[in-house]
Write a structure and sequence with these properties.
It is built from 4 helices and 3 strands. By secondary structure, it is α+β, with helices and mostly antiparallel strands. It folds into 2 domains: 33 residues; 56 residues, no CATH class. Strands 1-3-2 form a 3-stranded antiparallel beta sheet. It is elongated, with a radius of gyration of 19 Å. About 5% of the residues have low confidence.
Amino acid sequence: MLDRVAGERMLTRIDGLAAELAALRAELEAQLPPAGNGLDGSADDFAPEHLLEVSTASERFGVPCDTLRLWARTAGCGRKAGGRWVLSALRLRRHLRE
């Protein structure tokens, strides 16, 4: 069982981490393109500037490579290019939000 001081220290740390996460979220949202950018399907999701290789998408989205290949085949998040899977960052974002 924690004593009062240790518990308060942990709560203070949690509050600080929550504030840092909120700031990171706001920073990321500020960097996202405005509506009508393909997040709603209005732009060319497979334009070269939106494509990621599987390993890059795995690092960026925190999803295993095998799962990304499956989503590319079954959920329409990617396509084959030169014998390798490439994924649309826009379609991945939409898929993860669903």
